[in-house]
Amino acid sequence: MSGRRGRLSSRARARDVIAEQPPWEQPRMRLDPIRAVSDDELEAVHQASLRVLAETGIDFLDDTARRQLAEAGADVDGDRVRFDPQLVEELISTAPHQFMLHGRDPIRDLVLGGDHIIYTSVASPPFVTGLGRDRRDGNRDDYRNLIKMGQVLNAIHTVAGYPVEPMDLHPSVRHLHATHDMLTLSDKVPFVYSLSRQRNLDAIEMTRIARGVDEATICEEPSIYSVINASTPLRYDTVMLHGIQEMSARNQPIIITPFTLAGAMAPVTVAGALVLQNAEALAGIAYTQVVRAGAPVCYGGFTSNVDMRSGSPAFGTPEYWKACLVGGQLARRYGVPYRSSNVNTSNSVDAQSAYESVIAIWGAVMGGVNLLLHAAGWLEGGLLTSYEKMVIDADLLNMVTEMLRPITVDDASLAVEAIAEVGPAGHFFGTSHTQDRYATEHFQPMVSSWTNFENWDDTGRLEAHDRAEKLAHLILAAHEEPPMPDDRRAELDAFVERRIAEGGVEADH
After folding, report:
1. How far is Cα 124 from Cα 378, in angstroms, rounded to an integer?
2. Which residues pair with 112 in a beta bridge?
3. pLDDT of residue 509
C-alpha cells in the first residue's frame, strides 16, 4: 500500500504543479503584423513567382494530377506543368480564409486562419533526448511520452506529426500504431503524413471512428491535417500529390510548405528564395482547389539559409526572420492562413537554442502566423526532439500568448485612486487594488525563476535544463488518458488490428 500511496501522492504533486500553467486557450493576433517589404516590393515577388510558373513551370510526378491540371487549363508537357497567371489567381481565390479544425473533444476545436494562432509540438525528428538520458533513436516509448506531454501542456494545441519518429515500429504498420496512440493518449486534433494513399485513408477513418461521426460529417468537418512539402526546386513528387488528392477530396486541411534553403535548393538572395517558395506554394494551393474547390489549405513558409562554409541548414537566423515576415505578407495577399515554425540549430538546451527560437517565434508571430509548427521541442536543425526544450518552449509560448492579450485601459486599471491612496514614498503591495489582482494580472512562468544568490535553495541552483527536466517528469506523471466511449474504442482497436493483420501498407512508401 505504501508504494501505491507514494505513486498517488506523486501524481497529486504533479497535478498541483501542472494546474499552475495558464488555461487551455487559442491566442489571437491583436497587433498589426509587420510589413517587411512595401506593397510594390511584395507585388514584385508575386509577379516574379507567376512568371516562374508560366515560363519555367513545375514538375508534377503523378498522372492523375497532370490530367486534372490539364483539364483545369494548365499547360502540361511531360511531367512539366505551366500555369497561366490568371489561372493561378482564379484557383487560389476559392481557398477559404479560415476554417475550423474539429478535435475529438469539441473543447479542442481550433480555428485556423484570421487572427487565430495554433501552436504545435515538434514533429518528425529521428532522434530524442532528455529525462536524464542522452541522444537516442526515436522509439515508441518516447513517442508515447511526448504525445502525453503535448496532451497535458495547455500551450500545445495539436501535434504536427510524430513528435519523434517511432523507428522501432515497422514502416508498414507504423502509421496504424502511431495514429492509434495519437487518438487515445490525446484528444487534440491529429495529423497524418502523406506518404501513401492508404496511410491517409487509414488515418482519416481512424479519426472518424474516434470522433464518433459518419463519413458525411467528417467530410464536412475538417478533423485531421497533413503537410505537403514541395521537392524544392520546382517539383511535387507522387506521394505528396496522392496526399493532396485523398485529403482535399475529403475536405481535410493541407499545409502546403516548400522547404527552401537559400544558397542550396533556392537562390542565395532572400528575395530569390521567396520567389521560389511562393511559386511552389501557389502551385500546390492551386492544385488543392483543382481537386476540390474550397478545400481547406494553408500557405506554408519555411525559407532559411545554409552555412555557406559547410552547406548545413541554418535556422533562427536574420534571413529566416525576414522570410517569416514576408511569407506572412504573401499569405495575407492571397487570403489564406499562414504556417511558420519555431526552429533552431543548437544541439542542446542552451542559450543558442533559446535565442534562435525567440527569433523564429517572433518572426512568425509578427509575420501574422496562424499555424506555428514545431513550436515546442525542436533541436539540432530538426533532427532531435528534447523533452526539456518542449517544456521551455511551452513556457515561452505562454509568454507570447500573454503578450498578445489586450491591455486593459479603464478607470479601474488606470489606478488613479490607488496612486492617491499610496501617495509619495509608499508601496502598492498591500493595497486592495494590488491584492484584488495579483493572482490574475501577471503571468508566472513555470521554468524560469528569480531569487537572489543569498536566498538560493537547491531549486534555485539548478540550470534551466535541470528545472525543465524535473517539470517534464511531473508533466508525464500528470497525464491521464482522455475518455473515449467504449464502443468507439472497441471499433478503433478492431480497425487497427484488422489493418495490421492485412499487412498495413507497402513498406517502401
Report:
1. 10
2. 99
3. 46
